[in-house]
Amino acid sequence: MLLTAREVHKTFEAVGGRTAVLRGVDLSLDSGQSLALTGESGSGKSTLLHLIGGLDSADQGQIFIDGADILAMDDAGRAWLRRGTVGIVFQQFNLIPSLTVASNIEFQARLAGKYDADWVDVLIDHFGLSSQVAKYPEQLSGGQQQRVAIARTLASRPRLVLADEPTGNLDEETASNVMDMLLSLVTEAGAGLLMVTHSAALAARLDSRVHLRVGQIE
Amino acid sequence: MIAVTFAALWGHWWRSPLQLFTLLAGLALATALWSGVQAINAEARASYDAASATLGEAQFDRLVHRDGLPIGQDTYVRLRRGGWLVSPVIEGRIGDVRFIGLDPLTAPGGMAPIGLINMNDLQGFISADGRIIAAPDVLLDGVKFDPAIAPGTAIADVGTVQVLLGRRAEFDALVVRSEQPLGQASLEDIAPELTRRVAQSGSDIGRLTNSFHLNLSAFGLLSFAVGIFIVQGAIGLAFEQRRGTVQTLRTLGVPMQFLVLLIVVELLWLALIAGLIGVGLGYLIAAFLMPDVSATLRGLYGADVVGTLKLRLIWLASGMAISIFGTVLAASTALWKLSRMPLNVGAQPRAISVIAGRGEKAQVAASAVLLLVAFVLGLTADEILTGFVLLGALLIGAALGLPTVLRVLLDGVAQYSRGVIASWFWADTRQQLPGLSLALMALMLAMATNVGVSTMVSSFRLTFVAFLDQRLSSELYVTAEGPEQAAYMVDFMTPQVDAVLPIMSAQVQISGRPTDVFGARDHTTYRDNWTFLTAGLTPWEDVHTDAAVLISEQLARSADLQVGDVVNIGQQPLKIAGVYADYGNPIGQAIIAESLFKTLFPNVLALRFGLRLPLEDVDAFVEGLKSEAGLPASSVVNQASIKAYSLAIFDRTFTVTAALNILTLSVAGFAILMSLLTLTAMRVPQLAPAWAMGLTRWKLGLLELFRTVMLALLTGVIALPLGLALAWVLLAVVNVAAFGWRLPMFLFPWDYAQLGALAILAAGLAALWPAMQLVRMPPADLLKVFSNER
Asked: Cβ A98–B252 below 8 Å, yes or no?
């Protein structure tokens, strides 16, 4: 199993005491599979994604990625995992404003020591970014920026792709195109995809779907 | 990983060249002012050390006369016969040149000039012709130049210098060789009038001028602090704008510690580049100021300092170190915050007001503590170090409190504003304040320093002019070349003038302090013109009963003496009848009656005289003195010339201060410009809605300009009392501790108004460029704000 989450709990400090956001979440995902994580605002979707991505630590439970328990890792270990094994696509793109489109796409692959110029060219071509490579992120539209963000994630050939509302800022048509590309490339690379979304239509295009309600999988 | 991460971080600077320029320029300017001052100090100290080495003061004990009188040749001969391995030294000035005479055959080998005299020179050196070896800056013909000799100095055989100075058969000191034979006769038996002065590290002149250099260093440090405000602003902004990049890098797998390390390396590189530029600029500043410093030190302390600069490793290293220190200081808070930033928070830059708001309480608390420390020190400080701690606490405390004071003022004004645009303007200004606060702090410090230092200097000048009028009451001053000429002159002059007032002095110790004691004739000139800081009812009458002495303020303060106390001059106990001001003199002074002086110092003869005569007779008298008494023109000086010369020295003394004042104010103006320019881009999202709702770009530009000028004006109003407090500390604490005199403080409203106008002009000019950028901003750029809204 590529991803396994067991009894994951997470609470946050809030006015009036601690609030439980995740209450014993269990989840699993195989290589080459895609899973939609849906739920209302505040149900804990993004928190779970951050925990799986090693961006935050849980209060209790275990999360295994390729057999390694990331909750038991220190900061450096999680950073290593994010460099090589996990790729994250954010709703806000999170591109590096000081780098060109080409440098942004190559960035994570170079960081992980997996840079493959041919594969990057394929991605640039596939996402229709050939004429944009010398531009900076601020010179691109929202849809273009999200395509750069996805290309960057896929350039390092991660074993697991985590996507947090990747088309949330895009219009319907652009969102559909971006999703087509994401799904085809994830499938082609044999990676696993866990995607947080509000959209029932998008969720329907993935292999399976789980719904999170008040911190628990329904 | 290093290369790609570094590229991502560095990319920020290439995309924000103005920010990079601000950082480098701020740091370079701060380093320049600091290292410029250090260069001057290093050069001056090197000159003192060279001068000290010339006479071997740091290496060898010396025998000197207890009363500061010359040592006779017979005494020297007696000592040599008694087994003392001593070598004679004589020193004196002819014009601007300091002549030192020594005996190369008996002088210890370690004395610096001895090493310069090789065997070929030796014969010429001790021959009747008397070869002279001089520093390259000495303007003498027929001498051998050697750069190793202290500036303004010439050395020759002791016999040659005795002839040149007209002091045959006498010396100023006898240098004692390190190795002395056993069984030599005791000094008390052979020459009881002599005392042995032990070798001391560091030169006397170095110690004497320490306070001057400390003042310069303090000014350099203040300028550095103003520069660091710019750097902190630039680094804080850069860190804030890179929060997103740092967050993204971390989410992509770059460990935080690694990122912090890379940022530190990046900052050290920038510090190194800025440091090199700063040291170069510092060299130019120092080279520009050095001639004035040199003249100041010569005029005020009699210290010869070369007027040109050499590259010295010590200040090069000090410049680089201060650049790195400044960067670390400016970046430490931002770096610490960044290193503690959680990974999963929003990556967008926050509004500066939000960042600043959180620190305001801590800043106000720090300000209150520092101002309290300043208040306590203001009541208690009596040393130069505590004086500077007081200055530091006062300035930093006030600077930290400035944003809050401005915010309260703006809140007050906002309450009375009418109309929607006015309400928006004041609210927007309040929000802008945190982003501008560092630059405004820099402006306030620069203005307060200007007010403080100019008040001190102008107060000093007024006092000094009055002091000169009081002290230089004789219409003419003449100097004889020797005792015989002096006696002839007195006979010649006495029937032609109202009074001849001899000026004679000797160096003594009073309460352990080196003091110049003067003998004063009983004459109304003194009674009519001298004023006292404190005195009995009839001070001059008391002096002339031979039972009293008048002392200078420096001596009174340093030895804690008061009117009515009794001091000894030689074996003679004397009651203090009065304390008088004596500005510009580094050591203590005392005045006793002429008759007593002649009893105590029978060997000291008056060679200088003050002459009282009607002003209209001066020219005719001078002509007669030259033609009939054969006195050269250079020996006669009228009162006006001395006053002009003294004031020229005074004004030159503060040329350096004035130059540093202007430089500090310029740096503050630069801080405002850079803050506004870097904020311009961040202002667009705040201004775009106002533009969309109907305010024209012109009006927005004008409001931006008005805002900056208004903030500068408010800052100036706050800087004025701070500057006056600074002046008070300089006059009542630092000056007393450094020089031993306290000056009255005067106010100069017109000067302050001019300074305020200059500061507002600087702020206005600084705001003009960003305002014009706003006016010319294409509507498309303003619209982007809305297109990016999500």
From this structure: no
Instruction: Tell me, yes or no, if B343 comes closer than 8 A to chain A by beta carbon.
Output: yes
DSSP result, B158-178: HHHHHHHHT-TTEESEEEEPS
Q: Which residue range(s) make up the domain with A92? A: 29-57+71-211
Is there a single domain that holds both residue B738 and residue B691?
A: yes
Q: Does A88 touch chain B (CB under 8 A)?
A: yes
> Is residue B463 located within the same domain as residue B595?
no
* pLDDT tier at B273, thresholds 50, 70, 90: very high
Is the CB of B248 less than 8 angstroms away from the CB of A83?
A: no
Q: Are residues B159 and B297 in the same domain?
A: no
Spatial CA neighbour of B177 closest among B80, B100, B99: B80
Spatial neighbors of B713 by CB under 8 A, at least 6 apart, are B756, B760
Which of A53, A79, A110 lies at the smallest CB-CB distance from B255? A79
Q: Which ipTM was obtained for this model?
A: 0.75
As for how many domains chain A has, the answer is 1
For residues B154 and B135, the answer to whether their CB atoms sit within 8 Å is yes
Q: Report the gap between the CA of A11 and the closest CA in chain B (Å).
A: 14
Say if A24 falls within a structural domain. no
Cβ-defined contact of A103 to B248 (cutoff 8 Å): no
Say if the Cβ atoms of A76 and B252 lie within 8 Å.
no
A-facing residues of B in 257-276 (CB < 8 A) are 257
Provide the residue range defining the domain that includes B232: 1-50+209-350
Which of A1-15, B403-417, B461-475 bottoms out in mean pLDDT, i.e. has the lowest? B461-475
d(CA B640, CA B646): 10
Cβ contact A95–B10 (<8 Å): no
Same domain membership, residue B314 and residue B291: yes
Facing B255 at nearest CB: one of A76, A84, A169 = A76
Q: Is residue B764 part of a domain?
A: yes
What's the mean per-residue pLDDT of chain B? Answer: 79
Our count of domains for chain B comes to 4
Q: Is residue A4 part of a domain?
A: no
Give the pLDDT confidence of A187-212 residue by residue, as tens digits.
877 889 999 988 888 899 899 999 99
Q: Is residue A16 part of a domain?
A: no
